[in-house]
Write a structure and sequence with these properties.
Length: 144
Amino acid sequence: MKGAAEAEALVQAQTLLLVEDDHDQAAIARHCLARIGCQAEIVTASDGEMALWHLTACPDRFALVLLDLRLPLLDGIEVLQELNRQGRAREQPIVVLSSSDDQEELSRALGLGAVAYRVKPIGLKPLRQLLLEELQKWAPHLLV
């Protein structure tokens, strides 16, 4: 029964965690999320330690996590490793958004519990499309 209760809590979560250290990129992502009809509360973490704090302090709060890999303090892979060590890597969908198309990083991220690894596109329209696809797939209840 515990699994069903956890699944229901996840479905009910209305918050998205955006982990991005570049303030301009975070603002662009927020703008794109608003444009595609995302009605979630968006919490931003600007480094890996802050992301890990949010994910361990309030594990049922987030319906979706958008995780950059190149972060200060702890990088995205280290965040995934720590969540995996704690047994929490698969508590909510984590989509890695990276500027790198490195296949080794992709394999590591997916192996550590990320549900998707997407290379950040250039331009607002492609970024909106990428975000829309990921929200439709992992957290459609956040869209209007």
